[in-house]
C-alpha cells in the first residue's frame, strides 16, 4: 500500500537511515575523488616557497636541506659551550636549532638539515661544528 510518505513498510525508526547512509557514502566518495585528483596538477602549476604569497606576519619556511651552513658558526670552535653560544652559533649558521654533542653521549642519528651540531670535548670546549 502506498501512502503520501512512501511505502507503508518503510515506516518506523529506520525509514531515514537508508537516505542518511547514502549521503555519507556520497560525501566520502567525493572527498576521496578530490584527494586522488589533487596530485594531478600540471607541472609548474604549484607555486614554489620563494614565489608563494606571504600572509601578513608569517614568513615562509626555508627548505630544510639549505637551512644550515656550518661555516657561519666556525667562530664557536675553541669556546666553552653554553646555551648562549648554541643560540648565537645557530643564528649565524642559519640553523633553526643547535645541540652540543659531548664525547660518549647517545644522540639520534637522523639527518636534520635545519640543525647545527656542536661537537664538544671533555673540557666542554667546542671542537667542531657541522650541520645535521
Please give a structural write-up.
The protein is an alpha+beta fold and 132 residues long. 24% of the residues lie in helices and 16% in strands. The chain has a three-stranded mixed β-sheet. It has a two-stranded antiparallel ribbon with strand order 1-2. The longest helix has 21 residues.
Concise summary:
With 132 residues, the protein is an alpha+beta fold. It has helices at residues 17-37, 83-93, and strands at 2-3, 6-7, 97-101, 115-120, 126-131. It is elongated, with a radius of gyration of 29 Å.
- Globally, the shape reads elongated
Q: Fraction of residues in helices?
A: 10-25%
**Proportion of residues in β-strands:** 15-25%
Instruction: Strand order, main sheet: write it out.
Output: 3-4-5
- Radius of gyration of CA atoms, rounded to a whole number: 29 Å
| Total count of helical runs of at least 4 residues | 2
Distance between the termini: 76 Å
Number of strands: 5
Structural class by secondary-structure content: alpha+beta
- Mean pLDDT across residues: 73
Residue runs with pLDDT of under 50 for 5 or more positions? 41-55
Largest sheet: 3 strands, mixed
Q: What order do the SSEs take from the amino end to the carboxyl end, as H and E?
A: EEHHEEE
Helix and strand arrangement:
Layout (H helix, E strand, L loop, with lengths): L1 E2 L2 E2 L9 H21 L45 H11 L3 E5 L13 E6 L5 E6 L1
Parallel strand pairs: 3-4
Antiparallel strand pairs: 1-2, 4-5
Amino acid at each position: 500500500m502506498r501512502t503520501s510518505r512512501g511505502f507503508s513498510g518503510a515506516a518506523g525508526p529506520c525509514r531515514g537511515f537508508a537516505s542518511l547512509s547514502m549521503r555519507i557514502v556520497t560525501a566520502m566518495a567525493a572527498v576521496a575523488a578530490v584527494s586522488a585528483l589533487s596530485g594531478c596538477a600540471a607541472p609548474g602549476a604549484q607555486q614554489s616557497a620563494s614565489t608563494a604569497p606571504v600572509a601578513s606576519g608569517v614568513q615562509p619556511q626555508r627548505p630544510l636541506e639549505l637551512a644550515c651552513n656550518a661555516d657561519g658558526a666556525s667562530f664557536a670552535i675553541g669556546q666553552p659551550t653554553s646555551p648562549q653560544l648554541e643560540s648565537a652559533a645557530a643564528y649565524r649558521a642559519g640553523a633553526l636549532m643547535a645541540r652540543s654533542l659531548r664525547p660518549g653521549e647517545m644522540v639520534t642519528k637522523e639527518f636534520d638539515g635545519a640543525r647545527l651540531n656542536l661537537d664538544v670535548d671533555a673540557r666542554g670546549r667546542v671542537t667542531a661544528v657541522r650541520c645535521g
